[in-house]
Structures are given as structure tokens and as C-alpha cells.
Amino acid sequence: MDALHFFTVYYAGQPIWMWLAFFAFIGFLLWIDLGVVNNKDGVISASKSAKMWASFATLAIAFGAYVYFIYVPDAIYYNSSDNLNQQAVIQYFTGYLLETALAFDNIFVIGMIFTFFAVPREYQHRVLFWGIIGAIVFRAIFIGLGSAVVNQFTWVLYIFAAFLIFTGWKMLFGGEHEVKLEDNPVLKFVKKRMRVTETIDNHNFFVKAPHPDGSGKLVVWATPLFLALIMVEVVDIVFAVDSVPAIFAVTRDPFIVYTSNIFAILGLRSMYFMLAEAVERFKYLKYGLSLVLVLIGCKIIWNFGLSKELKLVPYMEPHWSLLATLTLLGGAIGFSLWKTRSKSPAPRD
Asked: What Pfam families does the record point to (predicted)?
């Protein structure tokens, strides 16, 4: 197998022009976002955020229609050659819902980051915008490498299954995890090797200021806004450790994996401004999400071990995963809203 075949089949999964078209489309959406809709600093209201999220969700649904009617799936990624588009679209929406649910944890941690660095609300959108661009790049790397490994060595899925079951179990019974930003090794590394200002200067990530040696020479300093951006990127990488194995447990098609991830990530920024004030109302979502992760891990063992290899049980079709995901996440959200119905969001400064 030559390098080009390995890249185009196992890494990319689809012709390069299709990937370039998708990246161009995402680039256009980001330009509309920052260049037209949110081209000025300012506080984004919950209502505007809801409209933005609804727009991205509508595009995600429209892309699902493309997957069903136009997309040409490669049969090597699916259980059978029957109804490939039906399998692909079900897996796409399962991945989208799963990644969107996992984004709730991101919202909580991102809020802690903004509080820790005292990022004014009018600059938070700028940090999240560049954070989304970083996430698009890093997810492409992780998913591409993951696709190459999973499709070349299918047994790796069993490692993913064990990891997802362990993660879901830990999320279910491990209690609340405390995030200590001041002890983060990445943050310590950056502070040790860069000059960092004490305060945020407008929406700038970098500014020019006199050298600390008192010579009066102007040099480049990073601002706390840049440190906040780095931590947002670190958080996305950390959460990708959970989400990427989870989505590969749903589908091995790299194009479906990546597109479902990116559409969910695009809505994350709007979701943050829409839900940041009420994130405590979704406190029971983690239980539904943990059960989904355990279910997906068990599904790998069921389909690839008990069904394909041992032929002891029938194959679990993708629509059952989608139905279970909808039921568990929808039930957890509904229960959370019902249990916290008497709580009102805390006012923000």
C-alpha cells in the first residue's frame, strides 16, 4: 500500500475536493460570523445566541439531508452494502447529538476560564471564535489519525470500548471534578516563557510595551486574553480524548465523524452565551451522557465481538443507537429542567 492510497482511503475516506469544499463552506460561515454578524466587540444576548445556535443547527440538519440524498458513502466503513445513505445519516446525527451533549461540560469549564482571567463579556466571543478555529484544526488531526488507525487495525475499537465504559462509569460515580487552572502545566509553561501583562488591553491578544529591564525598548507582550485562548484550546483537546473515541464507536467513516463534530463545535460558542447563565439547570445531564458512553462502549463489544466474530447475537443497527441516545439525553435534560424548575440563573456582572 503506497502512502497516497493510505492517506486518501484510510485517512481522508473521501476525495480531497470534497474535504476542500467542506473547509471552504466552514470558512465562509466563520467569515459571516465574525466579519458580518459579530464584527464589533459587544455582549451577545441570550436571544441572539439562541438565533445563532438555531442557524447552525439548521445547517447541520440540512447537511444531514445532503448525506442522505447526495453523499456517496464508502461501503468499507459500514456493516452491509444495503442502505448505505440511511446508515450514514443515522450515524451522522448520532455523532452530532453526542458531540453537542459533550459540549455542555465545555461550557462549564469555559465559564471558569473566563472568570479566572477576568475576561470581559464583550471580548468573550472573540476568544471563542479563535478557539473554534483551533478546534477545527486539532479535530482534523485527531480524527484523521484516528481514522487511519481504526480502519487499519479494527481491534483498536475494543480499546475505545473499554475507555468509554470506564469514562462513563467514572462520570456516573466519580463525583464532581474540580478544575484548578492555576496548577495547569500548560499555563505555567507559557507564563514561564512569555512576557504577560497584568491586565487585558482592549480585545488584543498581544500588545507592545516597554521591556521589563527598564531600557524603554518596546517589545511584544501577551495579554491574559491570549492565556484564556490557550486554555480554551487545551480544554478542547482534553475533551476530544472523550469525544473522538465516542464518535468512532458510532461510525468509522472519517467524513461523517469530522462533519458531525464540526457542526456541533460551531454551535458551541452560541450555546455558551445561550446557556452559561443557566448551566446549573442541566446538572443531571452528565448522568444521561455517562450512560450513553457506557452504551456505546458496550455496542462495540456487541457488534464487533459477539456479533461479527463469535456470531452469538444479531447485529445492532445504527438506528437503535440513535434512539437510545435521544432517549437518554432527552430524558436527562427533561429531568434536569424539572428538578431545577424553581432555580433562576444567577445575575452576571
From this structure: TerC (PF03741)
Question: Among 270, 305, 123, 267, which Cα is nearest to 200's?
Answer: 123
Q: What are phi and psi of 209, to 5 degrees?
A: -145, 165
Going by C-alpha positions, the residue among 32, 23, 69 that lies closest to residue 52 is 32
Q: Do residues 249 and 98 lie in contact, with contact meaning Cβ atoms separated by under 8 Å?
A: no
* 20-54: pLDDT as tens digits: 999 999 999 888 877 777 767 777 777 888 888 89
DSSP characters for 19-32?
Answer: HHHHHHHHHHHHHI
pLDDT, one tens digit per residue, over 221-231 is 999 999 999 99
* Burial zone of 299 (CB within 10 Å; 0-12 exposed, 13-18 middle, 19+ buried): buried
pTM of the model as a whole? 0.83
Residue 288: CB atoms within 10 A of its CB come to 21
